[in-house]
Amino acid sequence: MGKTNTIINIYEEFSEYPAIFYSGTVLGQSFFDELKFDFNLEFSPNETELTLLKKISSLAEDRSKPFIIFIDALDEWIAQDRTKQLDNLTKVLIRYGIKLCVSCKDIVWNSFLVQREIPTLFSQHLFVVPPLTNFNDSEFAQASKKYSRKFKLKVNYKNLSSELYNPFSLRISCEVARTKNIAIESTQNSRETLNTFITQKLSKTGELQKLQRYLNSISQILLAQDAVQIEENQIRNALKLYINEELPIEVFSSNLLYRNIGLESQDVYIGFYFSKIRDHIISTDVLALSNKNSKMRIAAISDSLHTYVGENAINYFFRTGTQREQEDCITAFIEFDKANSESKLTKIIAQQEGSVIANLSPSSIKDILDHTTYLISDIKDDRIISREITTVLRLISMSHDVGSFLVDLLITLNNNKENGYDISPEICRILQNYDRPELTKKLKNILLNRQIDNRIRRFVIDALDNKELEDRISVFNSLLDEAINGDGEDVSFYAEYWYSSIENATLRNRLLKLFDESTNGHVLRLLADTLAYSKLEDTGMLLLSRFQNETYSDYITCWLCRAICSQNYRPAIPKFIELLKEDPTSSLADHILIGLGEMQAKETMPALFEIINNLDEKVDAWWLSSSFSDIAEAADYEELNELYSKSVNPHTKFFIALTLAKTRIR
Question: Which of 131, 517, 531, 603 has a CA-to-CA distance to 552 between 20 and 30 Å?
Fold first, then answer.
């Protein structure tokens, strides 16, 4: 398990330090009583807390290393006053320089840090507390290699599921693989694996069948109450335990169950340490889903989906099921969704591994896809459903051909706009992976159909970007005509990046002619942005001649300037520097600064220093700083430092400080 493995690893790394290790699972009501008992041979059993720890500390002085107390699973310590005891322990540890290292479940951790909205003494003396998460790739490789060496296991990393990135899942698989002398990959996502693991743990007690009944009963109570943990007295009553009869400590020490104290009531609660074990027992033993016929199984699954615990058990059953069981699950999900206006199918499918989806039957895939169409057509989106649908579509597309379905789904989206689904970007992103003539033709028809929502058409442009589109120039011109006529301004703007791959002199000259003839600000901006992608050598010159000889609005002049700079047309630099010096506070000056920075126009530097030295508060310091940083060399920064020491202009000094700070951050 992650926490236990980590704290044991730390304990071993500090093996040269004097230390003692405790498990919260077996700690009694008083930590100091446990400590006194363990040191009974060294010290008097009548020692006070203070003198005991003082003597323990003195034992470590000879080794010039502090004494360390390790407590694993602090959350499972059953003492009702454990937070108070921990604070008292902290006082003494601080006094004598003794170190404390603990592990704890995150859901309980805050109870040790705050009591009645007041931070505890313990919380005020913590070092950085790293939360444990699933392994990353490097950690997983290290952990699996250690297991393979320790247990002499063969590991084929290519065949391992990402589910094994959970430390406890990896531990279960490795323990079972060692016991059965099989490869790790044969144990993942297997009901048999969990059965074997549970049996291994319970067999050590000599009461296998009895404890299996206990675990089944506890699981049944959790399912009925839709709870992940329940008060221990309820369990005792359900199991009909005698007053002096306890649950065997092995079910806790082996990490099948955990105990913790309620945050408010101080009652003792019990739950499954690993939810996957709870889900396994509920689905295979309590509900006995594998033993039912299809009709009864579908009914039981539908009934279980009403609760959180039930849904998680069904999720596990689906993930580990046979094709027949998975088909019944999907049928139940669909029936439940339609009866309750929910989206359990997409929620559960979205949580699966790609390998699970790849092994689904063709009929199951069809049912899932048809259900996404139903959701889009009949259920209002709440953003969560959208994310689930796109995840499902992406997962299915990794192993099944859904190109035609996705194209049709774009039409479904358009016909049901009132339901608010905005998943066309994700659909078109998936469609980029398909390059079949019939799909390309359908996508082109959607793009050119003015009855289709412009946002959908905008992303179809992206889907078509890498396709073999023989009449791309014709399509581009159609979109351009549409924009010029004012019917679809958003569409043509997003097609501009096609221009560099389809440009020829005829098309470029048409754009220039349209630019000369138009008085529409949107159209002029669109044309300027598109011409910025030009690769023809004389485009920069032709744009500059218009910039110098025509009168445009300030808005269009700015974007024409940017188009010229995008061409890296360097003969324009003197003109831009002249305009920059004339009025460095104008909007045009901002665009000139951006453009000259992109061109890395070194000849701009004298003008920049002149502006900086006499800086007006109306000058956009951000763009001035960015332009300077894009162009400057080491000598320019030295000059900037000198200017800072000489200048009396507060705007200048602030600007220089900002620019130098940005440079250091870089």
Answer: 603
